[in-house]
């Protein structure tokens, strides 16, 4: 069965392209186009009053969708922003500094660039004291972080490593030591949100969770999300006027905050991503497609792709995680990774490379014909 018809606009816009980078920039389904159009039409029709619809209808609907997807069922713990870097800055400003002085941050060598770069720069400027643990072996990472977390104010770890596709188990060890007065535990779930069913669950009682729409939510940029546990950071230092959106009657000079996740809000934003996200979620519901079903499909595609590479030069690479694992991509480590990525791109085949790791990502818009074509292209590599 093929689901290409749900992506006819994206696929039709570049019919010769083989896009196997769904883990990076997921192609947009047709439903997201309808969302973008509705956003424009609402802006034209409602003008200033569009915010009544955005904040009164769409925002809470999106919160409910995310809370169900995370397995927390607490929509009031969800807040949105333009990107996860924006949310990371708000967390840095709000987190408790128990020892005074710079924030003490504990993280791993496997974090994505938005966190890695910002933490490195803050460490350079003296705004944080940074400790970085090796991300491998991933099966002991949570316990190793928990052992070191007593000296940290904020701990950040990916639930699924973007470079290797490896899952980090036993995050309960970190959730058990997270406290409102520190340490805070922040889970980067960008590669688990809508790729793994209910990735947060009970962890959400004490852990923050960051993700967004750019990848498996199929909604594009502009919709990052954060689950914020109750009682953590009631008065964030970086704050926009939407953080008191529910009570704009406060006397001048008073800085009020919403009691729920809205306390982490910024200011005026582009709501189009909310429309795209909700239209995409409605499309999935109408098609009967859950995260579990999509993951099962992609897992089968990954396994068949890995099998199909056996007679190609890519077989010489180290496959960093099992094709049946939860990652929606294959990660192949080899000194020629960048060379292979460039050669494939020259043939209009989109993969991506991280250092010496070639990543091949699959999604709902792929089928066996795509796997056959990729294997044929891979066979021509040197």
TrEMBL record:
Organism superkingdom: Bacteria
GO molecular function: transaminase activity
Record's keyword annotation contains Nucleotide-binding: no
Keywords assigned by UniProt, alphabetized: Aminotransferase, Transferase
Name of the protein this chain belongs to: Class V aminotransferase
